[in-house]
Specification:
Layout: H1 2-28, H2 35-49, E1 54-58, H3 64-92, H4 99-107, H5 109-113, E2 118-122
Helix pairs in contact: 1-2, 1-3, 3-4
């Protein structure tokens, strides 16, 4: 089932959201200071490309630097990417078939706002994250 949902997701909104994360990552990697943010953008972009079968979990070893980084991320790129998830989620919820995809889009909003200090794991192995 998750394969079918991922393919439908890819066609309807996953590719476009991935491109948004890719553009944000490239723009953030222009400076040396922005490289960690760019890498986080690429990681979350891959998750936005194939979200079904994966989950974002908090890393226990993430400390104050990830909190400060999340504030900077929110200002630099997080707001715009979250807005993209809101718009595509609302558009997907127009049809009955698109409602599960819209809900999945809304679940990606917290990850797009605060990606640092999170790790993407497969849902069949939820406890493989490093603690």
């Amino acid at each position: 089932m998750k394969t079918i949902l991922n393919v439908i997701w890819l066609v309807l909104c996953g590719f476009w959201m991935f491109l948004g994360y890719l553009v944000a990552g490239v723009l953030l990697c222009v400076t040396i200071i922005g490289i960690p943010f760019g890498l986080a953008s690429f990681r979350i972009g891959r998750y936005a490309l194939w979200p079904f079968g994966h989950a974002a979990v908090e890393r226990r070893d993430a400390g104050a630097p990830s909190c400060v980084g999340n504030v900077l991320w929110l200002v630099l790129a997080g707001w715009w990417l979250a807005l993209g998830h809101i718009v595509t989620g609302l558009l997907l919820c127009v049809t009955i078939i698109g409602i599960p995809l819209g809900v999945a889009n809304f679940k990606l909003i917290p990850v797009s706002l605060l990606p640092l200090g999170r790790e993407i794991v497969r849902t069949d192995q939820p406890f493989t994250a490093r603690y």
